[in-house]
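The data layer described in this paper is built around a simple, fixed record for each protein. We quote a single record here, exactly as it is kept in our systems:
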Amino acid sequence: MKTHRHYPLPMLISAMTRKVRGHYNYFRVIGSMTSLWIFYREVVKLLYKWLNRRSQRRSLMWEGIQRVLKAYAFSAPNQTRRAV
């Protein structure tokens, strides 16, 4: 995340989405949803932290980061289905 923090917001979110989706695809197995959601929350916290460090004043509140994630379709983990 540190290497992308100076990018414009759409580029930053798309880069983070690709990295997070790759992590989900690699580590997703049946029964791992709890750990994937913990990872998702930590990534969102770090994104919030780095976006607020862009200026001398607080630029985003939690509601704002939720709107940004929704607007740019930041991927949350989804349920793994069992193959029959």
Remarks:
- The longest helix spans residues 33-52.
- The mean pLDDT is 84.
- The chain has one domain: 2-71.
- DSSP finds three helices and no strands in the chain.
